[in-house]
C-alpha cells in the first residue's frame, strides 16, 4: 500500500491533467514552436538581419520607453488610490473601487478609440495637441493598467502590521517620515511586482498602440501585425515574435519571483475613517476617477452625436451592413458573445483541472516536481502575447481557420492563466484533512469536491468565469489574425470601422465601442461584488 502511493498518485495527476496537456500541446506548443521554426527556417542569419534593421531598433526603443513611462505614471497614480480605497472607509468607496477596475477589462481597441475621441481635434482635450502622439499613447496605456497597481499594492497595504508605523509615530516621526522609512520598504516588493506586471501589459498593449499610433508609432506587437497582414514578411514577424517571447517570459519569471516575496500571511485590518491629513490622498483619488471617467464619457457623448446633432443614428446603423463591413455590427456582437461563452467554459474546464492538480497535497519529491512543472507550464500563455499566439495559429493551423472553435480556443488560452490564478489560491487554502475525513466516510473524489471544495470555491469560480468572459469579449490580438471576414468579432469590427473614412463609419465605431465597453463593465461589476482579488496576482 505504501509502496504504491508514490507511483499511483503521480499517475493519477497525469490522468487528471491529460486533457489540459493535450490542449496545450496542440494549441500552444505547436503554434509557438511553428513560429520559432519559421523564424529560424534559414538559420540564425535572417533573424539577426531583422533585428539589425533601423526600423526594428526604433520599434524596440518605442516599446521599451513607452511601457516604462506608462508604468511610472500608473504607479504614481495608483499608490494614493490604493491607500484611499483599501485603508480608508468612506461613502462610495466600493463603487469607486469598482469604477477604477473597469479600464483594466476594457478591450484595448475601445481604450484607443476613447482616447482618440478625447484627444482629437474636436474632443474636449483637443487643444493639447496630443492626438496621435507618444504622450497620448502613454496616457492610454497608463489608463488601461492603473487598476493593477491599486489592486496589488492595496491588498499588500491591507496586510501590513500597523504596529511598526504606530511605534514610529509615537516616537515623533512625521507621517511622511513614517511612510518613507517604515511603510514604503514594506510595500516595495508589492510595488515592484505590480510595476513588472504593468510593464508587461503596457509592452503588449496591442489595441491601444495600433489604434492611436497610426503609421507614426509602432510597438513590437503592432509591427508583427503589420509585417504579417500588410507586408507578408512572415519571417521578419517570426523574428520579432521570438524576441518578444524571450523578453516577456523573462518579465513573467521576474514577476513570479517577486510575487513569492510578497506572499505574506494576510491579517487585513478594518479600514479606518479618513482624517484631516488624508485629504490629499482622497483628492488624488478623485482626480484619478475623473481621469478615468473622461475618456469613457467622451466616448459615450461622441456615439450620440452625428453631423452636429444629438441622435441615436450611430446605434441604429449598427443593424445594417456598411461599406466597411460584410455583416451588421449586431451580428458581430452576437459572434463575440457566442465566442466568449465558448472561451469561458473552455478556460474554466482547463483552468479548473489545472488548479486541482497543482493544489492537492504532494506526497514525495516526484509529486512536488510534477505539480511545479504543471503550474509553470500553464502560466506560459501569459508569457506569450496574444499577437504572437495568433500569428502562431496562423502559420501552423491555418488550414483549420474556418473551424468556428479556433478563435474560442485561442481566447481560452489567453484567459487560462487568469482562471488558474483565481482558483488555485482558494483550492490551495482548503484543509486537506477535510477531504481525508470525507474519504474515510466513503466519499469518492467527486463527492469530496462537491462537499468540501465547491462550497469554498464557488464564488472564485464565478469570478474566474467573469474575468474569462470579459477577456474573451474584448480580445483583439489573436482574434485579429483568426477572425473570418463573414464572422468578425466586435473588436475586429471596431478597428475596421475606424480604418475606413466617413463620419458614419466613425460614429458606428464609437457606438460599437460603447456597446462593447458596457458589456464588459457589467460583467466586471458583477465580479467585483464577489470580492475575489485576482488582478496582479500573477
TrEMBL record:
The chain crosses the membrane at residues 62-88, 95-115, 127-150, 190-215, 235-258, 279-301, 343-360, 372-397, 409-430, 461-483, 503-527. The keyword Mitochondrion does not apply. It is a multi-pass membrane protein. InterPro entries: MetI-like, MetI-like_sf. Gene3D superfamilies: MetI-like. Keywords: Cell inner membrane, Cell membrane, Membrane, Transmembrane, Transmembrane helix, Transport. Coiled coil: none annotated. Its main location: membrane. GO terms for biological process: transmembrane transport. One of its GO terms (cellular component) is plasma membrane. It holds the Pfam family BPD_transp_1. Belongs to the binding-protein-dependent transport system permease family. This is Thiamine transport system permease protein. The lineage of its organism: Bacteria, Bacillati, Actinomycetota, Actinomycetes, Propionibacteriales.
